[in-house]
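Anyone? Bumping this.
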Amino acid sequence: MKPHDWRPPTLTTERLVLRAFTDDDAQPLFHHARNPNVARFTLWEAHRSVEDTLIFLRDYAVLRYLEGMAEPYAITVKPDPRPVGACGCFWAARPHQTMELGYWIAEPFWGKGYVVEACRAALAFAFAEYAPERMQARVIAGNHASARVLAKLGFREEGTLRRSLLRRGNFEDVRMFSLLRNEWHAAASGENPQQ
Ligand SMILES: CC(C)(COP(=O)(O)OP(=O)(O)OC[C@H]1O[C@@H](n2cnc3c(N)ncnc32)[C@H](O)[C@@H]1OP(=O)(O)O)[C@@H](O)C(=O)NCCC(=O)NCCS
């Protein structure tokens, strides 16, 4: 058991700092999470008020930290400490040692490779700390940028779960990707597990 005030360790990359969220992030995070372009392919709805953002920070983030999960991480771009997105790995099926990667970043920061950089750090921490056998990621069909992120991280596409998600009144096709523990470690050490 982790102490109730446990928070994920801060991770630093070349351009980013990933850290735990706090209540103080509500206003700057709302500024980005209210954008419907960001929520176009997400499971969550664009935030309508800062109250929605506070619910995310208090009811989602704090509960994950209480469980000892390093998720969600606030993505910040050096040297600005304000959050511009979120990423992290959570248990999708703990008895099967399967985790899932999720991520988003604010629209002004798209196309700069930030999410790949952030997710590499979050994946390194999750594989080291929780040792999942499988890391999966789901992408709603049409979200090509997200599929590119996963390809750059070394994920493989497994197939499409046809019409498996009822979202905003529509059944969506969901593309399933995965990265296995041995593939992650082989890539991290410069090997190719297929050879
Ligand atoms: C999808 C998302 C995570 C990609 O993150 P990112 O840091 O912009 O990713 P990258 O910079 O590595 O770019 C990935 C691809 O996005 C596309 N892209 C680049 N600039 C773009 C722009 N200005 N607008 C839209 N797409 C763009 C390119 O196809 C790029 O692929 P390439 O590197 O082969 O050219 C980000 O756009 C986002 O947060 N979107 C909203 C939330 C979301 O969809 N989350 C994922 C849910 S599964």
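Late reply, but here is one note on the structure posted above: The chain has one domain: 11-188.
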